[in-house]
């Protein structure tokens, strides 16, 4: 039995991530999708919210487990000896340098942690979580970028976040 892990921030999960998840789920017996923290990023969704969105978006796939972890990916890999390989998506050559660095760092921290890359499908190469967040904050149509089961939830959260940001900016202006 071959088990892979697909790590990411998933803030929020997009159709681009789902493309990689579906294809990796066909290649491996089990795929663990794990929400991790990049300490250099500011997140809009809490970890339980990101886990819940991922669970809803992948409910139709039988061999998926969703998890979260607040440590190094290399340590998660150590804690779960059944995991064989890390899967990452590559959207363009611009992803390559960052992903290459992460793959080497993970292997350096844990020599068992090998990474394989799956090229993103052509129709998802321009999608990112930040782009989805911007479209949602300005009330744009998310239906092509995020799974249909969750676009209402994503829009509601980000519209509220943006309204709060604008309210705070207004308060500062009036000081
Ligand atoms: N389709 C669409 N978008 C994709 C995508 C795909 N196939 N693959 C990646 N992306 C987007 C994401 O939406 C995200 O967009 P954003 O920057 O607008 O938010 C961006 O590409 C980067 O995604 P991700 O791979 O999740 O990188 P990240 O920097 O957000 O998170 C972690 C990387 C969480 C996996 C990494 O920081 C980590 O392993 N953290 C744990 C601590 C650790 O071990 N650190 C050392 C690792 S070197």
Report on the structure:
With 175 residues, the protein is an alpha/beta fold. It has one domain: 3-Layer(aba) Sandwich (Rossmann fold). Helices cover 46% and strands 16% of the residues. The chain has helices spanning 15-27, 47-57, 73-79, 93-109, 129-137, 151-173; strands at residues 3-8, 30-35, 64-68, 85-90, 115-119. It has a 5-stranded parallel beta sheet, sandwiched between helices. The mean pLDDT is 95. Coenzyme A (COA) binds at residues 7-9, 11, 14, 16-17, 20, 36-38, 41, 72-74, 89, 91, 102, 105-106, 120, 124, 127-130.
How many domains make up the 3D coordinates? 1
Q: Strand count, sense and closure of the main sheet?
A: 5 strands, parallel
CATH structural class: Alpha Beta
Assigned CATH superfamily: HUPs
Tally of helical runs = 6
The distinct ligands, each listed once, are: coenzyme A
pLDDT under 50 segments (min length 5)? Answer: none
N-C termini distance: 62 Å
- What's the CATH architecture? 3-Layer(aba) Sandwich
- What is the CA-atom radius of gyration, in angstroms? 17 Å
The chain-level structural class is alpha/beta
Percent of residues in beta strands?
A: 15-25%
User: Shape from CA axes?
Assistant: globular
Roughly what percent helix?
A: 40-55%
Count of beta strands: 5
Q: What is the H/E string?
A: EHEHEHEHEHH
């Amino acid at each position: 039995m071959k088990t892979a892990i697909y790590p990411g921030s998933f803030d929020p999960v997009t159709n681009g991530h789902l493309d990689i998840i579906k294809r990796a789920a066909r290649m491996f017996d089990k795929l663990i999708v794990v929400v991790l923290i990049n300490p250099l990023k500011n997140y809009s969704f809490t970890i339980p919210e990101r886990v819940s969105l991922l669970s809803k978006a992948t409910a139709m796939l039988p061999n998926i487990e969703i998890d979260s972890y607040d440590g190094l990916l290399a340590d998660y890999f150590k804690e779960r000896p059944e995991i064989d390989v890390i899967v990452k998506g590559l959207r363009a050559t611009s992803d390559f340098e960052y992903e290459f660095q992460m793959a080497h760092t993970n292997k350096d921290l844990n020599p068992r942690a090998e990474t394989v890359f799956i090229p993103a499908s052509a129709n998802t190469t321009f999608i990112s979580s930040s782009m989805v967040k911007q479209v949602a904050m300005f009330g744009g149509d998310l239906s092509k970028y995020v799974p249909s089961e969750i676009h209402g939830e994503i829009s509601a959260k980000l519209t509220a976040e943006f309204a709060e940001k604008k309210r705070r900016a207004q308060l500062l202006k009036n000081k």
